[in-house]
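Thread: Newbie trying to understand structure tokens

Hi all, I'm a second-year student working on a class project, and my supervisor (Dr. K.) asked me to get a predicted structure for one chain before our next meeting. I've only ever worked with sequences, so writing a 3D structure as a token string is new to me. If someone could post the tokens and maybe explain what I'm looking at, I'd be very grateful. Here's the chain:
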Amino acid sequence: MPIIFNKIERANPQNRTAPKKWYPVLKTIKQTNEKEVAKEISDETTLNRKEAEMALNQLGKVLARNFLASNSVQLGECGSFHLTNNGEGRDSKEKVVVADIKNLNIRFTPGKELREALKNAVFVFSEDLVSGK
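---
Reply by user tm_fold:
Sure, no problem. This is what the structure looks like when written as tokens:
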């Protein structure tokens, strides 16, 4: 299955008067939900669909619990999750306070197997699908 992309024209946010440029932007066709992921897992393991759903549900709880304890989470060859933040900069170490933390972000770093699989990605322009190219 190819990864579909569109061509989108965008302005430079740092210089709105600069000429716009065209960029490839990946398109999501469908979001696979938890039940569908559980079904795929059950099709490839000895878990039944309900057991797989329960495991996925628990994964969310385990991730939250570990993030709140300042831990990252490694999921085997799949990859790892860790927290990052956006924050306000200060002139000195002494002036940095908790209120300077603006947003928490969850970052995923893919493992080797997933990175290798993505190297074989095939891309197709969305308009080519419509025109049959």
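A couple of things are worth pointing out once you decode it. The chain has a mean pLDDT of 93. The beta strands are 3-10, 21-26, 73-75, 79-87, 101-110, 123-125. Feel free to ask follow-ups in this thread.
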